[in-house]
Amino acid sequence: MTEKKIRILIADDHPIVRAGFKQVLSETPDLVVADEAGNGQEVLEHLKKKKYDVVLLDISMPGKNGLEILKELKTDYPKLPVLILSIYPEEQYAIRALKAGAAGYLTKESAPHELISAIRKISAGGRYISASLAEKLATYLNVDMTKSPHETLSDREHQVMRLIASGKTVSEIAESLNLSVKTISTYRTHILEKMKMKNNAEITLYAVQNKLVE
């Protein structure tokens, strides 16, 4: 009996990254890279035409980011396992991704065997998190449930807050996210209100102290 192959859709805006994943997965007989997508729109278009067993989804893509695409996927394809891939440390996005419906979260520095294990586990209906993240989640669940100020932000507000903290102007953020300056200004107002801050300098200081920016 032939072994059932796990059909994978890789979504990452960097061709070289996609090629790297394909190389790793091509050496594993039960895993097949069925298609690739360079942005969120391509992911959705592929899914309208074909079925996949697992989606590997980069968290930071142009246009709609990985978390936004993830939410759309979980609405339209609730049973499709999605493994979020990120260059960011686990503590920055993992909890948000898992809450949004991801079946797993891996940093791009993870070893190839970990990627393969994660794909097999989530395709079988499980969830995958690294040992270090499991420890962080346990700590997170055991601490007082009062939220840190940045945890009250929506995913988009969180993204804008990090861009402000990295020194980008409202117009630069608007351009990079394909949104209007007015929309970004509104997000900034909400961020200041929710985090009880007065200006960008306070946002930047907070983000640096909480390791939310590089």
Plain-language structure description:
The chain has helices spanning 15-26, 40-49, 66-76, 90-99, 112-123, 131-142, 155-165, 170-176, 181-194, 200-209; strands at residues 6-11, 31-37, 54-58, 82-86, 104-107. The protein is α/β, with parallel strands linked by helices and 214 residues long. It has 2 domains: 6-141, Response regulator (Rossmann fold, 3-Layer(aba) Sandwich); 149-209, Winged helix-like DNA-binding domain superfamily/Winged helix DNA-binding domain (Arc Repressor Mutant, subunit A, Orthogonal Bundle). It has a 5-stranded parallel beta sheet, sandwiched between helices. Helix 7 (155-165) packs across helix 10 (200-209) and helix 8 (170-176) packs across helix 9 (181-194). The longest helix has 14 residues, at 181-194. It is globular, with a radius of gyration of 18 Å.
Give the overall silhouette: globular
Please trace the helix and strand order, writing H or E for each element: EHEHEHEHEHHHHHH
Give a short account of the largest sheet: 5 strands, parallel
The CATH superfamily name of the largest domain is: Response regulator
Indicate the percent of residues in helices: 40-55%
Q: How many independent structural domains?
A: 2
Pairing-aware structural class of the strands and helices? Answer: alpha/beta
CA-to-CA gap between the ends? 50 Å
Radius of gyration: 18 Å
Average pLDDT works out at 88
CATH-derived topology of the largest domain: Rossmann fold
Task: Please identify the top-level CATH class of the largest domain.
Answer: Alpha Beta
Gross CATH architecture of the largest domain: 3-Layer(aba) Sandwich
Low-confidence stretches: none
Give the number of DSSP strands.
Answer: 5
| Biggest β-sheet: strands ordered side by side in the sheet | 2-1-3-4-5
Share in β-strands: 5-15%
Tally of alpha and pi helices: 10
